[in-house]
UniProtKB/TrEMBL annotation:
Origin: domain of life: Bacteria
Residue span, RelA/SpoT domain: 64-205
Organism (species): Labilibaculum antarcticum
GO biological process, one term: guanosine tetraphosphate metabolic process
Protein's name according to its UniProt entry: RelA/SpoT domain-containing protein
Xref: InterPro entries: NT_sf, RelA_SpoT
Amino acid sequence: MGDLTDFLEHFNFSQSDFESTGLDWDNLVKIKEDYELFQKELSPHANSLIEAFHHVKTIHSVRFRIKNPTHLIEKIIRKKIEEPERVIDINNYRTEITDLIGLRALHLFKEDWVNIHHFITANWNLQIKPIAYYRKGDSSEHIEVFKKFGCEVKEHPFGYRSVHYLVETSPDKTTYISEVQVRTIFEEGWSEIDHKIRYPYYKDNQLLSQFLVMFNRLSGNADEMGSYVQYLKKELDSRDKESKEAVEKQILIINDLKEKIKELELKPQIAKQLETNLNEILKLPTHNISNFELKLPDFSKMEMLDYSKIDLSGFSKTQLPETESKTKPVNKKKGK
């Protein structure tokens, strides 16, 4: 992990920041060494959780990561800076830092969350109530859904939309805590961009923040469009089913009329003309999709981006941080 000076410089901590925590560097080194041994137990446990989530049809894919030892020490320091009175030491860090195992369950449509929520709460004990993060400006109806299913709702300062669970499992005498984040694929895409560009060193950069807000709004609108398309498909499927049933009923009625015509004592020419007319009825179009009155969204009311308010001054001088991915997606559907 190197010496203290190099560590503080790498993670953008000042010496005074570190001193304010009251932490001892040698004790942090011991925590890191202990965690490196404990870390070996976490991967098999994470894989068992992933296997369980693969049985949920509404989950598109699952990602996971085991926290890096150096990043564990960074987080302990950050926690102590934010909460100086909090005690985090070698005896309790495994429970105080609750995202040593981190999983993300991704789904396509916002409505899929309810099914995933039921799966999690039915199969595991939760350390605390699920926390549903929303962006300022999200609809009150959407927020109320989270409350209805027992979530604590919090506005996220950077606009993250996600539901977080702290899942407790005890496959042996050891209790493991895993952080499970559930979000849509669009939310994941935006959060990945936001995290790689801003976290943790560019949180206050106004220029980057303005562009990341645009990404956030676009991902939210994309999720809304996904829901609308899903609704449209269900509505069209329903109308198509009704149409097919009407056609089948029409055929039955016409066939019945043909049989009754045969029983009547009609002149052959008249009987043949009636049968011809009935056959012509069968050829008529039974529905026209353009005439359906579907409940489509009012796109004119969707939030639009005002690019004129973006301040581009000094953009050419802004340096974006170099980052690299440390996790890989684990696709649920093989062969794709």
